[in-house]
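Chapter summary example: a protein plus pyridoxal-5'-phosphate.
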Amino acid sequence: MTYDDYFKRTVEQLKDEGLSREIKAVLQGATGPWAQIDGKRTLLFGSNDYLSLSADKRIQAAIEEALEVYGSGSGGSRLTTGSYMSHEALENRIAADKGTEACLLFNSGYAANVGALQAICDKDWTVFSDRYNHASIVDGIALSGAKLSRYRHSDLADLERRLKADVSEKKLIVTDGVFSMDGDIALLPEICKLAQAYHALVMVDDAHGMGVLGADGMGSVSHYGLKNQVDIQMGTLSKAIPGVGGYVAGSKALIDYLRNHSRSYIYTTALPAYVLAGSLKALEIVATEPWRRERLRALTAYLRHGLLEARFNVLPSETPIQALIAGDAETTVALARLLLEDGIYVPAIRPPTVPKGLGRLRITLTVEHTQADIQCLIERLLIHGKTLGLI
Ligand SMILES: *Cc1c(COP(=O)(O)O)cnc(C)c1O
């Protein structure tokens, strides 16, 4: 058997189980609600561009201006020759918006989670991690060598039982602020109380909260008014902020520590200046255009009302991520395929990304969706949901 045979056979097996991952090419101008897929005009409900800023001309102008001045590359890592004024400007802006002393940029949200957890924790730590946390958190914990204690999703009794039983000197509780596949918000006030009682650090991954939650758009921590109680606020600049990059915001002591210990921060080329200019402009828009968040909330309520009225099994969520449970992998894929034939794209999420039997359509809304778009989705779902016996 050659190694290629081995690779092929493994993927074949996934295909047999209906679980292989293939890339769907989405050809389009920008990530708006409408796109061309296989030459067909298609309505998209799968983007994380919640605020519909990806095609924003003001952001593009800022990017072009920086590109003109600084060029396309950064030329080195942050600690060698790759640091620009714009790195500091963006770090300061995020820290100010989040209400923390300092902030550190990473090249992606993935790199931020892996880099922070690897740097902060070692074998003397126990990390208490929600079962539904993002894969980058799971990978960061593995890389750190810390003891992992996975608690049941948003189950505070389970978390407390584990905290009580643990004998490690150093403890960290880490959770998604908004769970990426379910859309529900973490129970942060209760988690912070437990952290205080058991002398643990709290880290929140706000990839899907940033720009969307809180009166100021600063995410789940702001939504609950917990700015001084969450020690480590991590997030990404690739979702509502429509670029690329990740960050960790927290105390000056924490950020100085990460700058010296985070391998995914130290041993990588810095983000180029034009990327930073785009994120800076996007943050300005997040702060000055709260109507985007209000509109998103109204659209979310409209969609939920329609789905629940049709008696679909929709997970509880007040965010633009709405999970319509279809069950096994085959039914989930079949539903997504029927919608695609109608010109509607909704991603089908299957195990191992979600637990077995909880295959789902992950419907996401953006500011530029209209009520008519949503009505169209609901009408088609009604027809196919009956065909597949879901309603
Ligand atoms: C998307 C995501 C990340 C990773 O961010 P990238 O910038 O895409 O690397 C981390 N955590 C959560 C919860 C996410 O949804």
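Key point: The two ends are 48 Å apart (CA to CA).
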